[in-house]
Amino acid sequence: MPVAVVLTGRLTRLEPLATHHVEGLAQAAAEDRSSYAFTPVPHGLDGAAGYVDRALVEQAAGRALPFAVVRAADGRVVGATRFLELDYWQGPLVWPAVPGRPYGDPLTAVPDAAEIGNTWLAAQAQGTGINTEAKLLMLRHAFETWRLRRVSFRADARNLRSRAAIERLGATGEGVRRAHSRGLDGVVRDTAFYSILDEEWPAVRAIIELRLAAGHTRPALGVVRGEGGPQPGGLDDRLVPA
């Protein structure tokens, strides 16, 4: 499995998810749950503990690399995200292929493709640029450290805002898989798939960095909440893949 790392930016720090993040996750998820219709987000301390336990089981099995999203300004946990669907293409060609099985020492394995997902943020962290910077940190690690060939994303096809957020990153749409899986609301959902390839990464990185730079020059970063609802005072990154 890939070695756990800390990824640090100006706005956020991505820490390997651990049990000491449970209380912070529970507090982050309790603020305003209205934006979580399509995203599995833990509820309460017991829910957060189970969420972390399941994520660590996935990590131990080599199927995911989960992170706690920490706000750099005050060290507060404001959400979670992860690499998942890790796939390996090294070693002898075996057919039929066995996905997710590294060749050689699994403790030092580096994947060739991965997905970024299971992302959610506390209400007060949405629209502050944290999600955009977190994606930059993860994509940079994927393409420049791991040297991945492809990073993919997916979203419930009904979640138009999350799909727009993925597209704003510069990801390419690969189509919609009909009746793909059961959605969070119990309805059989269609799923929209997106990807970024290694040769596309330099252009995508430039797009994300320009968005972050534009957000930094604005007079107020954050979300102003009032009777009229959330109004982004910075980057429009409120919506994340589900």
As residue ranges, the low-confidence spans are 218-236, 238-242
Number of helices: 5
Shape: globular
The CA-CA distance between the termini, in Å, is 23 Å
Q: Main beta sheet, described?
A: 8 strands, mixed
Number of strands: 10
The chain-level mean pLDDT equals 87
Q: In sequence order, what are the helices and strands, one letter per element?
A: EEHHEEEHEHEEHEE
Strand order of the largest sheet: 1-2-3-4-5-6-8-7
Q: What percent of the residues sit in helical stretches (DSSP H or I)?
A: 25-40%
**Beta content:** 25-35%
User: Structural class, please?
Assistant: alpha+beta
- Radius of gyration over all CA atoms, rounded: 18 Å
Descriptive account of the structure:
The chain has five helices and ten strands. It is α+β, with helices and mostly antiparallel strands and 242 residues long. The strands form two sheets. It has an eight-stranded mixed beta sheet, sandwiched between helices. The protein has a two-stranded antiparallel ribbon with strand order 9-10. A hairpin with a 5-residue loop joins β3 and β4. α3 (130-145) packs antiparallel against α5 (201-216). It starts with 6 loop residues before the first strand and ends in a 10-residue tail after the last strand. 40% of the residues are buried. Mean pLDDT is 87; it is low at 218-236 and 238-242.
